[in-house]
Amino acid sequence: MSRTPRAVAAGLTGAVCLASLSLLSAPSSYAAPAPKPGKTVELQLLAINDLHGNLEPPTGSGGRVNTGPVGDGPATATVNAGGVAFLADHLDKLRAEAPHSLTVAAGDMVGASPLISALFHDEPTIEALDLLGLDVTAVGNHEFDEGVEELQRLQDGGCHPVDGCQTGHQFEGAGFPFLAANVVDKITRQPILPPYLIKNVGSVKVGFIGMTLEGTADIVSKAGIAGVDFLDEAETANRYTKELQARGVESIVVLLHEGGTQARELTPQNSLFNDCNNLTGPIVPIVEAFDKAIDVVVSGHTHQAYNCQGTKAIAGKLVTSAASFGRVVSDLRLTLD
Q1: Angle between helices 84-95 and 123-132 (to 10 degrees)
Q2: Residue 114, Cβ neighbours under 10 Å: how many?
Q3: Is residue 253 part of a domain?
Q4: How many domains does the chain have?
């Protein structure tokens, strides 16, 4: 498989993709093994993370993105960005560029949400994500804010046990799967939700493994997660990579709610989004421990935007993150064979 990813900042014109997160950039190239002779399939992955129920554009700095320096001084230019309508517009435009497109997320799509979503237990955000055409998401730590049972209700549907369905509206649950490969029942040791999803893209099987950070138990209420354990990310991903390969999967993408931070040296030659400046944080050793068969890692949690590809790839893997609140979209172009 070869990869030609672009990083796209939602809401801006021009090419913006995750493998290079600049707002107005041309597609970036990614050095990968050349595909074998024969028929290939082009796949577009549009990746987001950390929406946090921001149905409306966020206010303040959370609703803006930096587009680069102004002149030679320290000031940076910013534009308004974020929210579901903003995100939908740009997803539609990007999808029009590719016959095969999947939209994926790396967790925290709900939780710590504005009142417009939180008041209704994030049901409006789940329904909005269905309308956006989300295909699959990993769970993040905030998906556990109200506990495992509430997460399973968001997946399966039904009335909230305290004040649900009071208006007569029946919540049907998410039309996309939450993946939780490293969240297991303490007794059965089985994942509480599917560990992975396989999608057929033309004649090629693509596998998506979804996980939250192992440290989730340290940052959410203990009461709601008493019956589960959170496992090591790399060990979990590597185990399911072998299982996916046994099922004929040829390309593997990890959706991981863990991330890092790059050194943000803004210069005219160095875009804030389309780069991977000395990336540090938990994501780095995790990816370095991943099986070599894993091709792409879509990350999140730190609300940062970065595009680690080419010479800045981590252990030979494309690693991306799309900021937060629907302000940035990662547009990855993969050649499958």
Answers
A1: 20
A2: 16
A3: yes
A4: 1
Residue 169 lies in a domain: no
The 10s digit of each residue's pLDDT in 18-43 is: 333 323 222 333 334 444 556 789 99
Secondary structure (H, E, C), the chain: CEECCEEECCCCCCCCECCECCCCCCCCCCCCCCCCCCCCEEEEEEEECCCCCCCCCCCHHHHEEEEEECCCCCCEEEEECCCHHHHHHHHHHHHCCCCCEEEEECCCCCCCCCHHHHCCCCHHHHHHHHHHCCCEEECCHHHHCCCHHHHHHHHHCCCCCCCCCCCCCCCCCCCCCEECCCEEECCCCCECCCCEEEEEECCEEEEEEEEECHHHHHCCCHHHHCCEEECCHHHHHHHHHHHHHHCCCCEEEEEEECCCECCCCCECCECCCCCCCCCECCHHHHHHCCCCCEEEEEECCCCCEEEECHHHCECCEEEEEECCCCCCEEEEEEEEC
pLDDT digits (tens, 9 = 90+) for 182-218: 999 999 999 999 999 999 999 999 999 999 999 999 9
Check pLDDT > 80 for residue 1: no
Q: Is residue 222 part of a domain?
A: yes
Q: What is the pTM of this model?
A: 0.90
Strand partners, 322: 305
Task: Report the CATH number that the domain containing residue 111 is assigned in CATH.
Answer: 3.60.21.10
pLDDT (tens digit, 9 = 90+) per residue, 81-99?
Answer: 999 999 999 999 999 999 9
168, part of any domain:
no
The whole domain housing 54 covers: 2-162+174-336
